[in-house]
């Protein structure tokens, strides 16, 4: 299971956010800490580590660390364009491989509480696991209760280690403080399995 992020922080207000996500996968627990900075001019920068083994006999000493950079442009009306890249390496006891993921998305947001996005992505062989991969990605965000509960989902096409869908439910405990829970659904013939997520995020808005 490989992780990528195409969701730039939509809060363009010079905000710092720290997120710690735990994934329960094949009876093993993995941690994913992420530090994010979102600027007023549409830039978003993340430093992320994924799949750090925390518990379970099946965990290994390998994990991935990335720098993720994206820029969001307003196009016209409710439409925005986001271009992003995720680059890093696997910290392996045997080898370190450069991993690259690039994407472009169009987001349609007709109202503040709902948006849809869709676009394409490229992943190199080290990240996709099946050779260089070009695919389709789509997702949504729905605010069910204003400033309290949000439902988000993302889908990645293909049959690589990236392929499948993830759905999360976010709950705002207070300004700048969120918890969330979700489930990952594997794509057919991807080699992945179902997994659960539980996360916590704290932004500089809380202070």
Q: Percent of residues in helical segments? A: under 10%
SSE arrangement, N to C: EEEEEEEEHEEEEE
> What share of residues are in beta strands?
over 45%
Which structural class is indicated by helix and strand composition?
Answer: mainly beta
Q: Using DSSP, what is the number of strands? A: 13
* Low-pLDDT windows of residues: none
Put simply, the count of helices is 1
What would you say this structure looks like, in words?
Helix content is 2%, strand content 66%. It has one helix spanning 125-128; strands at 15-25, 28-38, 43-50, 52-55, 63-76, 79-91, 98-111, 114-123, 133-145, 149-156, 164-174, 177-186, 195-203. Strands 1-2-3-5-6-7-8-9-10-11-12-13 form a 12-stranded antiparallel β-barrel. The longest helix is centred in the middle third of the chain and has 4 residues, at 125-128. It is globular. The N and C termini lie far apart (35 Å).
């Amino acid at each position: 299971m490989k992780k990528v992020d195409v969701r730039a922080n939509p809060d363009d207000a010079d905000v710092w956010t720290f997120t710690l996500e735990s994934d329960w996968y094949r009876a093993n627990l993995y941690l994913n800490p992420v530090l994010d900075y979102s600027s007023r001019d549409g830039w978003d920068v993340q430093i992320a580590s994924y799949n750090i083994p925390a518990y379970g006999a099946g965990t290994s000493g390998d994990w991935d660390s990335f720098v993720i950079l994206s820029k969001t442009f307003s196009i016209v009306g409710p439409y925005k364009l986001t271009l992003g890249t995720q680059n890093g390496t696997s910290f392996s006891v045997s080898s370190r491989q450069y991993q690259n993921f690039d994407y472009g998305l169009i987001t349609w947001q007709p109202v503040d509480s709902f948006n849809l996005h869709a676009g394409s992505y490229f992943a190199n062989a080290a990240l996709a696991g099946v050779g260089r991969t070009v695919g389709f990605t789509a997702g949504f965000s729905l605010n069910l209760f204003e400033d309290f509960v949000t439902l988000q989902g993302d889908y990645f096409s293909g049959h690589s280690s990236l392929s499948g869908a993830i759905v999360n439910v976010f709950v705002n405990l207070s300004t700048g403080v969120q918890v969330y829970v979700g489930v990952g659904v594997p794509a057919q013939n991807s080699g992945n399995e179902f997994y659960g997520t539980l996360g916590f995020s704290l932004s500089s808005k809380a202070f």
